[in-house]
Amino acid sequence: MFVADYDARFAAWRWNDSAPLLLRSSDSGAFDPWLTGDRLWIQEYSARGFRLHNTENVNPEYARTTSVALAADPQIISWKTPERVVSGDVTEYTPWKTLRPYFWLPYFNSTDAGTDFGVSLMGSDALGRHAYEVAVSTGVDGTGANAYLAYQYQRWILSYQRDNELYDFDIFSSDYTVIRSDEWMLQRLWLTSGLNEELGLHAAIRGERLRFSQVESNVVISGDDEYSEYVPGLALTYSPAQDLLHAPGGYGFSGQALIEDYSLLNDDFDGGRVQLEGRYMWDIAGRHLLELDILLGAASAEVPGWDLGGVPPRDDYGLFGRDQFSLRGFGNGEQFGRFVERERLVLATQLTEINRGLGLLPLAIGDVEAALFIERGRAWSNSDDPDAVMGAGLELRFNTITGYRLVAPLVFGVAKGLSGEGADSQTYVNFQLPL
């Protein structure tokens, strides 16, 4: 299927043998047609803004199941393909003319522990060989600036990230301890693949420097107040899961296994870390999704372990260098240790489809989703074995469409700790991409 204006009107067409077959015409701009079952979807633009239009009147030859004829009479228009014309000398492709930033996105994240806001710029060249992102944000409570810089060339990614993490070690103090981390990482994705590219092997090397930039008045730091590490790693991913066009649909299994070696490039560490994660999605009748996620991790005695607690995104969307895992209803770093396990069960549903834009501005709202979740987890060491903690909550997600194509969720969430030390009530808001 494609869009063309053969008869001076924008229309969606299907190529039928040797000629185009009209599916739907529009008085204004029409883009990106696709089919789901017996429904034809198309993006339309007019003086009133963006609209995502769908109809059940789809050509029966092309739909999988339908008994409805086309609303407009099919029109076959004779079309002769023009001969190839070269208007100038052939030159080598260079990315520089099209490598400018193409859009920007706001960043906003607010929890009980603080509020961050900022902006990110993204761009790529015309062929998609080069891509980059620059994101900066700051906390209103003066914790310092955060930054994320990334450049990707095909399967290579070079990134730098600075974070200021808040920890509440002293529950009787109104202050927070702030740990600043500076991390760079070089990744090589898809070293090799198999099983129809559902199985992939990836590699990375990262360096990180952590230090205490602020300490609560009643907290005493024992030992060094900063340290550095350089860690190579390998990851194996397996993802035969399928995503559906309607939100929040999907079904099937996906998983990953990660190993990181701290002893190869560091004199102060001896050993490594292993991390396993598996996720299964069930597509329930209607527009509903049930998802189960299980995470396990183990570290040697002389290497850094993991922190557990806080709200997403944290490190939930990363592959390498994951030191912290979210568990809503508890503060950042509520538990930490050499071993970690977390289980998460999510029931998500689509509440409605708005599919409307804000006039001619490049901003629209597509689906509105709600999700109920319950989470349980524990982080421990041989010398410190706390009980597992459990939290639950509700999220309301507005899938905004930025730049006419990019889905960036605006999320409102509430969570409450159900059991375990440090259980608390939380509210959070964020607007960002799961990068």
Which sequence of strands runs across the widest sheet? 7-8-9-10-11-12-13-14-16-17-18-22-23-24-25-26
N- to C-terminal distance: 31 Å
If you compute it from the alpha carbons, what radius of gyration comes out, rounded to the nearest whole angstrom? 25 Å
The CATH homologous superfamily of the largest domain corresponds to membrane protein fhac: a member of the omp85/tpsb transporter family
Query: Sheet bearing the most strands, described?
Result: 16 strands, antiparallel, barrel
Average pLDDT, rounded to a whole number, is 83
Shape: globular
Structurally, the number of domains stands at: 2
The chain-level structural class is mainly beta
Number of strands: 26
The total of helices stands at 0
CATH architecture of the largest domain: Beta Barrel
Features:
mainly beta, 435 residues
What does this structure look like?
- With 435 residues, the protein is mainly beta.
- Helix content is 0%, strand content 60%.
- The chain has two domains: 1-81, no CATH class; 98-431, membrane protein fhac: a member of the omp85/tpsb transporter family (Porin).
- The chain contains no helices and 26 strands.
- The strands form four sheets. It has a 16-stranded antiparallel beta barrel.
